[in-house]
Every structure is written in C-alpha cells, then in structure tokens.
C-alpha cells in the first residue's frame, strides 16, 4: 500500500482499501490509509472521518494520530477563521500525541513543518521553527529531510539552494522516485530560471527508476510541448497511457504547457478532451479544474459560448470552484 500511494496510484489503492473495509469495518490501518487516499482526492471531510475512525479504533499508533493531524490541517485550510482555529487546536493535539508515541515519526513532523511554515504567527506559525523541524527530519531520514528543505524554499526564488537540496536528496537515495521527480519538476516548472534540458534528463531518470508512475511522463510531456517537439510529445503520451492507463495526467500537463506558450490550441483541446474521458487520479487536476482550463482555452480563442458551456460544466461538478465562478461572472457581464 505504501508503494502504491508513494507512486501516485490512488485509484488502485482506494479499490483495495474499500474491499478491506467491506470485509472488516474495524480495520484501523485501513481507515488510516483511506484518510490519506481521500486527502489526495480532495475529500477533506471524508479524510477527517476516516482518520478519526482509525484513532478511535487504536489511539496508540503514532501514524494514525499523524494522519488525523494532517486531516485537521487540511480542514483548517478550507474553513472560516473560527472553525479553522478549532481544527488547528485539534491538529496540534494530534501532533503532540503522535510524537509522544514516536518522536521520529517523519510524516507527523512534515505536517508540523508545513503548518509552521505557512500559518500566520498569530495561529502558531514560525518559519524558523519549520527549518528546525526540517533539520530534525534530516537527522532521521536524510532523503526526506533534504526534500523537506527544498519544499520550504519552493516559492522563495532561491534556485541554487533549492537545487542543492534536491540533488542531495537524489544522491542520498538514487532509487527514490520522488526525489528524482522532484528534481525534474524543479527544473521544468518551479525554478525561477527553467532548464528544460536538465528537466528532461531528470524525468527520464525517474522513469528508469519506476516506469509505472505517471509523474515522469507528465514532466516529459511538459518539456516536449513547451519545446514544440511534436513527435516526441506524441510518443511520450502513448508511453504514458500504456504504462499508467488509469492516469492521464500527462495529457493535461501537455495541454497546460501549450496554453502557456500560446501554441497549437487544437492539440491542447484534444488533450484536455482525452483527459476528461476518465475519472481523474488523486492529486491530479479535478474535472472541474480541467474544464476551467478548457474554458480558458476557448476564451483565448474568442469562443465565448464554448467557454460559458465549460465553465457551467465545471460548476456543476464543483459548485464552489471559485476560478470558474469568477470567470463565468466576468464573461456574462462583458
């Protein structure tokens, strides 16, 4: 199960866990796994309920308490300030309990680190504390610690330092897919100065580690679309669909890249339509988001009626999807 989740196979994991829970509704570990899975499908209420059930069944497992802490943190993010404060209090209590049970539980430490980094000081945020937590993680698991440091710097414009942390993560565990995919994503997508040649190299190295995961193909699709290498793009999309038929994220990644460079919108439309042809994998853009992207493609082309259709479709899927609401209001009032 850990391998499935680490490589992004959330649909497969969900099917297995649903079967386990049908056989035994009191399987605490299965409820904990389900909480993690549902977070990745953006079902925070369901994740919280599953994590609560796991802890109720066995409160003495640090991982279950850590999963509850993560679910509370996610609920705090989407709640109003009053409810959010209550979830933060529950999160802190779960973190305290988890680390009392297992002071080296890195999953829990990562939850605490990201809260410390992102939260305002009035809610308990402390960026220096976040860095100290990343240091502690490094002492326990170097590869995870290096990735943690890189994550803290992701939006800070410190390319050289971030690259160093990511390269250290790859060196610490050359067979860890996440480390290689994270380095490729940095080069192609999050660095201030993109280096697509290095992104291609790192993505291919990730695929060599495990060709059954989607991320490497997505990153190559982004690179090839950006560089308008059409034959390579079609080839990697075919490879991705064959290797990971239940995750069409590479098509969506290619479509976004084409929109970013303003090229071949017909191809981008075809890719988005393909992506919408099956349920989205966990951690991938939802169908509401994909339809919003498609609507923006139509807006760029001046196809107002098509854009309105897609925005309304997005809101039927997710009524509170704010980007679609804002764009629909703007178009209807224009």
Attribute tags:
Serine Threonine Protein Phosphatase 5, Tetratricopeptide repeat; TPR_rpt; about 325 residues; Tetratricopeptide repeat protein; TPR-like_helical_dom_sf; mainly alpha
Quick description:
This protein is mainly alpha-helical and 334 residues long. It has helices spanning 2-6, 10-23, 28-40, 44-57, 62-78, 81-101, 106-118, 127-140, 142-152, 159-172, 177-190, 196-209, 215-226, 230-243, 249-261, 265-275, 287-301, 304-317, 322-332. The chain is globular and about 55 Å long.
Oligomer: single chain
What is the H-and-E element order? HHHHHHHHHHHHHHHHHHH
| Largest sheet properties | none
CATH topology of the domain at 1-103: Serine Threonine Protein Phosphatase 5, Tetratricopeptide repeat
Helix content range: over 70%
Query: Which residue ranges are poorly predicted, with pLDDT under 50 across at least 5 consecutive positions?
Result: none
Shape call:
globular
Protein name: Tetratricopeptide repeat protein
Organism: Paludibaculum fermentans
InterPro entries: TPR-like_helical_dom_sf (IPR011990), TPR_rpt (IPR019734)
Structure write-up:
Helix 3 packs antiparallel against helix 4 (44-57), helix 4 packs antiparallel against helix 5 (62-78) and helix 11 (177-190) runs parallel beside helix 13 (215-226). The radius of gyration is 21 Å and the shape is globular. Helix content is 76%, strand content 0%. The mean pLDDT is 97. The protein has 334 residues and is an all-alpha fold. Among the domains are: 1-103, Alpha Horseshoe (Serine Threonine Protein Phosphatase 5, Tetratricopeptide repeat); 286-334, no CATH class. It has 19 helices and no strands. It has helices at 2-6, 10-23, 28-40, 44-57, 62-78, 81-101, 106-118, 127-140, 142-152, 159-172, 177-190, 196-209, 215-226, 230-243, 249-261, 265-275, 287-301, 304-317, 322-332.
